[in-house]
Amino acid sequence: MEGDPDLQFLLKGGDLLKVLSPSWKKTRFLRLQDDCKTMWRESKKTFKSCQTFPVADIQEVRMGRQSEGLKKNAEEQAECRCFSIVFKGRRKNLDLIASSEEESKQWIKSLQKLPSSTTHWGSRRQSRHTHTHTHTHTRIWIFSCLRKADKNKDDKLSPSEVKSFLRLINIEMDDDYADMLFKKCDKSNSGYLDGEEIAHLYDLLTNREEIDVIYGEYAKTTGFMSADNLVGFLMKEQREKATLADAQKIIEKYEPDEQAKEKKLLSKDGFLMYLHNVEAMILNPEHSEVYQDMQQPLNHYFISSSHNTYLTEDQLKGPSSTEGYVRALLKGCRCVELDCWDGSDNEPVIYHGYTLTSKILFKDAIKAIKENAFKTSDYPVILSLENHCSLEQQVVMAQHMSSILGSALVTSPLGDNMPTNFPSPEELKGKFLIKGKRLQKLEATFANKAADADSVDVTEEEESNDESAEEEQKEKRKKKLKLAKELSDMVIYCKSVHFHSFKDARKTLSFYEMSSFKEGRAVKLADESANDYIRHNVEKLSRVYPAGSRTNSSNYDPVPLWNAGCQIVALNFQTGCKEMDVNQGRFVVNGNCGYVLKPSYMRDRSTEFDPITLTRGEWLKHKILHIMIISAQQLPKVNKKKSSIVDPLVRVQIFGVPADVAEKETSPVDNNGFNPAWNENFQFDVYVPDLALVRFVIEDYDSTSDNEFVGQYTLPFNSLKMGYRHVPLLNKNGDLLPSAGLFIHAMVLDEE
C-alpha cells in the first residue's frame, strides 16, 4: 500500500469549495497528514487557524448532492462535482464541491478507502507525528453549552446569549472584548451569530497558538494526549515528579469531553483547562497552604503589618474608618495600629492627631477588629497602641478591650513562670496581643514587686511626624504621660521602649521589650549595621513605620528591612503601590496567614549573615532564573474613557539582597490587550533565593508620558514553579483581575 496512488493523492491534498449557504462558498485546502490518521484543512482567511479532524471520526463519504446542505445550497449542474463527508456524533457534515467530476470521484474513492485501511497504512508508514488540532470531540461538549445558552431556541446567539455561552464554557470575559469578538464573528451584520459564525467564535476564543505547539509536542495518541504523554509533559517541561495516577486524576478532573475522558485521553481544551487551574499556576500550590513550622518563637517570623490602619486615604484630612481595619485584616495583616485620643462623653477616639482626619470610636474599632481578626488567618493579631489619652479614658480603653475581646486577649504570660522567650504563633492562635507602654518590667509581677501606685509616669513615645523637627521632637518625647495600671497590665509580650543602641539593647532590655523605628533610621541601620540588626532581631521584635513626611500615605521599600530581620515592617495598606504589591507577594505564601518564617541564618544568635557584604555561608545558593515571557490574555483597558486598546509590555523585577535586585522589560505590543505575544527571554542571577521575590508587571506603554499600570503579580522566588505557567494578575488594590493572565516559561538552574 506504500505507493498506493489514492493514498498519495490524499497526502498531496487539494483545493475544494466548502458550502454553507447559497452565497457562502469558500475555498478550503484539504489533505491527509503524514500520520495518516488526521485530515487537515486550511482556510484562506488570515485570522482563521487551520483545523484538523481525525479520520476515525468519518462515518461515510456521500457522492453527489445527497446531504440536506448540498440539496439546498448547490446548483443542480454541480451535482457530479459534489460530495459530503459525514461525521460520527453531532458534528455538521462537510459539504464540498470539487473543480471537476474526475477530481470529485478521486476524492470519494480515496476517502472511502481510508477508514478501513487506516490501520494498515498507519503501521506501514513510519508515522511522523505532526501537530494536530483536535476539535471534534470538544465540539460535542461545546454544542451542549451552546444549546443551553440559546435561551429562545432559535439556533442563533444574540450578544447577551454569547455572554452566557462564555460563562458556560468557563471563559470570563470583559464586556469590551466580548463585543469586539461578537462584531468580528457577525460577518452578516445581522446582530446575532449562527452556524459557522458560532464555530468561528469558538475558534477565536480558544485559539492559543503557543499552547497548540506545546500540546502538539506531547499529543502522541491519535492526536490526543494519553496519561502517559501527560506524564512526559509534567516531568520534562514542568519539572514535577508525576505518576500515571497523577496524570489520570488530571484527565478525570479537567477533560470536558466525556468520550475522551472515558478513553483516558486529554484533548487540547482539557489541556488548556488544566494549565489555567490553580494547581498549574506559577505559585507552588503546596505553599498556598500553611506549610512552615509555626512552633518557633513569634519574633522568628516576618509579620504582615499595617500603619495608621484606621486611615482609608491620606494622612492629613482623609476619612478614618473601621473599614480600614476590616480590609487590612481580611488581607492577612496581623499587626494593626490604633492612635488613641480623648473623645467626648468619656469615649476615647481614634484619628491621626493634630490633623483634620475624621474620628472613629475606639470601641467601634475594637469591635470591627474582633469580628474580622481571624477570618483570613487563625494566627495572633497584635494591637499596636499609640496612646495619647488621659488616665480616665485609658481605663475606658482597657475596659472596652477586656469586655469586647474577652478571653482572646492575652493579659498574662502563657506559662506559670516568668517567660524567657516568645510563645509561637501556634500557641497564640486566635489571640490578641497588646503592644504599648508598661509601667514596670514583666519580671516585677513575678517577684511580687508590683508598685502600689495606680499609675506612674512613663515617657510618651509617639511616632514623630517631621524629620526636620528633631529637636522639637526630643522635647516632646520628654513629656511625661500618665499610664493607667489597667492598660499597662495588658501589655505582656510587646512592651514599647525607646531604642538607644544595639549594645544598650543587648545589655539592658528583656526579650519582650521592643522598639519602633522611623523608616529613615531603620533604613540607615539596615544599611550600615545589617548584621547587628539581624542579631538584635533574633532576640527581640522590631517595628518600622513610614516617615511622617509621607502625608500622601505613600510607602517605603520593606525589603531592606526584612533583609535586616525586622519583623513588623508597617506599611500604609490603604495605598496601592509597588511596595504593597511586594508586601502582598511576601505574605501570599504560607496560607496567607500573615506570618512567614525567617530563614534559619536569621534565627541564629551568632549568625554571620550580612545582606550587604554577602560573605560565604548557607545563605549563598547561587541560582540562575530563566524567564520567557510568552503571551498575555484579556488585559483590562487601563483608561475606561480612552477608546484605545492597551500597548502592553511586561517588566520582570527581582527584589532581595542588593546583589539580587534587577529589572528587565519586553518591548511593547501595539494595540492588543486580547492576546499579545512577546516570546522574549530574560536571565537573572539570584544569590540569596530565600529572601528574593519575583514581580511580573504589565504596563500600557506610552511614548510621551509614564507608562500606565495594567496588572501585576509578586511571589517569593522559592515558591516559583518551573515550566509553562499562567501567572494570575492583580489590580492596583491587590485584587484579582478575573479574566486576565500572563503566560510564561520559567526555569531555575543551580550555578555550577
From TrEMBL:
What is the cofactor note?
Binds 3 Ca(2+) ions per subunit. Two of the Ca(2+) ions are bound to the C2 domain.
The identity of this protein, by name, is Phosphoinositide phospholipase C
The entry's active site is 307, 352
Binding locations of substrate? 18-45, 435, 437, 516, 543
Q: Where is this region: Disordered?
A: 453-475
Could you tell me which PROSITE patterns the record lists for this protein?
C2 (PS50004), EF_HAND_1 (PS00018), EF_HAND_2 (PS50222), PH_DOMAIN (PS50003), PIPLC_X_DOMAIN (PS50007), PIPLC_Y_DOMAIN (PS50008)
Q: Which residues bind Ca(2+) 5?
A: 700-702
